[in-house]
UniProtKB/TrEMBL annotation:
Residues 18-138 form the MTTase N-terminal domain. Pfam families: Radical_SAM, TRAM, UPF0004. The gene is miaB. Residues 162-394 form the Radical SAM core domain. This is tRNA-2-methylthio-N(6)-dimethylallyladenosine synthase. It is found in: Cytoplasm. It comes from Commensalibacter papalotli (ex Servin-Garciduenas et al. 2014). Its cofactor is [4Fe-4S] cluster. [4Fe-4S] cluster 1 binds at C27, C63, C101. [4Fe-4S] cluster 2 binds at C176, C180, C183. CDD domains: Radical_SAM. One of its GO terms (cellular component) is cytosol.
Length: 464
């Protein structure tokens, strides 16, 4: 229930004009969450501004997954504090809110170190944001909301009113029960939870009515989705995707992030049988060494990953594979690293993310005594990234000469250009009329540039 009794607000410059500025770090799920925060605050009269100094509310939506997350937050907060002070001198009040996984993990520490912060709230409690803001406006002091509530935030979020374009994220599952040795997600996002099917269909339908053509289903373990169906049964991701594909206007469905152990045979078959399911799969392996995979608690071997990829490629030979790699997990020897390099060279990826291991407080790997030296991690990461970059370039070059459907999503960088995405998530631009934005057309790809592909619209093309 959204509390809209907002007439007593004291921090606004004018009763009717209130602005909100959201800074989003981290994963796509954070982008989704930030959009929903905007949806929550819109009924209260807040409009989004990209100018932080104009904002009555500044929200910093944080990520705790890697790097020096907490220090980064405090340094950004220092900047936001200056804005708050400057605005105060002008007689304008500003609410600073810290959201996301660092807020969840650090909670009170944030308020202690940065008392000018008004609200700290975790990923599971942002549906209470209007109420929290109201409490601040009533001068009841700063607010912490980092418990895992009994109610689900999804039951309290309003339907999206504005789509950001022709592609959208939709969170269908949150949290994780897998407890990989290196990962904070089970601690910051909580236990694995799937949203009910009908709520997802309603949200997807609304997005499509607003012009969305491609939806990326999000979840920390998205392929483990098992939500309550309208028929009273538990639906898996395949059944959900099949149902979503019947929504008028929806052309493309993607999903991320998947765990290899939840890649069911029926999901693999759907990549062959369900045309809306895009031939792109982000399937993190993290390491190619059985010893490290075991230490990471990943629950599968390298051989099992190879076999899985074989099965997927048999079902959908043109599938583009993507992955995540962690280099320098505690105990990773040079031979372990070589096994990762071998896996990369054997499988080949269309794209991949690779990271140096960074200890996360509270995780089991962080207390391991056999941490890998920093310069060793740097050298290994560089070696891996060189190969991954070459593989990505090769994958893109191999698209040259092919005719593929492109969903145009925006204007290109140069006059007369429009740009969009291939089924394999590649950026593609052509000379074309802006009226084609929001449509899918066949394009003959004829050049591979550094950051995108370019091509020509197939003549007489009608929207697909
Ligand atoms: N250190 C480095 N990388 C990490 N990831 C998750 N936790 C850590 C960590 N502690 C990476 C994993 C995961 C991706 C989202 O971030 O590769 O798949
Ligand atoms: Fe983290 Fe993914 Fe492992 Fe869950 S499966 S603990 S989200 S890395």
């Amino acid at each position: 229930m959204v509390d809209t009794s907002f007439s007593n607000m004291t921090h606004s410059t004018q009763a009717t004009e209130r602005f909100l500025h959201v800074i989003t770090w981290g994963c796509q799920m954070n982008v989704y969450d930030s959009n929903r925060m905007v949806d929550l605050l819109r009924p209260l009269g807040y409009k989004v501004t990209d100018k932080s100094e104009k904002a009555d509310i500044l929200i910093l939506n944080t990520c705790h997954i890697r790097d020096k997350a907490t220090e980064k937050v405090f340094s950004e907060l220092g900047r936001l504090r200056q804005i708050k002070e400057y605005r105060e001198e002008q007689g304008q009040e500003t609410i600073i809110a810290v959201a996301g996984c660092v807020a969840q993990a650090e909670g009170e520490i944030i308020l202690k170190r940065a008392p000018y912060v008004d609200i700290v709230f975790g990923p599971q409690t942002y549906h209470r944001l209007p109420k929290m803001i109201l409490d601040i406006a009533r001068k009841s002091g700063n607010v912490i909301e980092t418990d895992f509530p009994v109610e689900s935030k999804f039951d309290f979020l309003p339907a999206p009113e504005e789509a950001q374009g022709h592609t959208a994220f939709l969170t269908i599952q949150e949290g994780c029960d897998k407890f990989c040795s290196f990962c904070v997600v089970p601690y910051t996002r909580g236990a694995e939870e799937s949203r009910p099917v009908q709520a997802i269909i309603d949200e997807a339908t609304r997005l499509c009515e607003l012009g969305v053509k491609e939806i990326s289903l999000l979840g920390q373990n998205v392929n483990a989705y098992h939500g309550q169906g309208p028929d009273g049964n538990i639906w898996d991701l395949v059944k959900l995707a099949e149902k979503l594909s019947t929504i008028p206007g929806l052309k493309r469905i993607r999903y991320t992030t998947s765990h290899p152990n939840d890649m069911s045979d029926s999901l693999i078959a759907a990549h062959r049988d369900l045309p809306a399911l895009m031939p792109f799969l982000h399937l993190p392996v993290q390491s190619g060494s059985d010893r490290v995979l075991k230490a990471m608690n990943r629950g599968h071997t390298a051989k099992e990953y190879y076999e899985l990829v074989d099965k997927i490629k048999k079902a959908r030979p043109d599938i583009a594979l993507s992955s995540d790699f962690i280099i320098g997990h505690p105990g990773e020897s040079i031979d372990d690293f070589k096994a990762t390099m071998k896996l990369v060279n054997d499988i080949t990826f269309a794209m991949a993310y690779s990271f140096k291991y960074s200890p996360r407080p509270g995780t089991s790997a962080a207390v391991s005594t056999n941490q890998v030296l920093e310069n060793e991690k740097d050298a290994r990461l560089q070696e891996l990234q060189t190969v991954l970059k070459d593989q990505q370039t090769k994958f893109n070059q191999d698209t040259v000469g092919r005719t593929i459907p492109i969903l145009f999503t925006n204007k290109g960088r140069k006059e007369g250009q429009i740009a969009g995405k291939s089924p394999y998530l590649q950026a593609v631009h052509v000379q074309g009329d802006e009226s084609l934005i929001g449509q899918e057309h066949l394009v003959e790809v004829n050049e591979c540039l550094t950051f995108s592909l370019s091509g020509n619209l197939v003549k007489e093309s009608i929207p697909l």
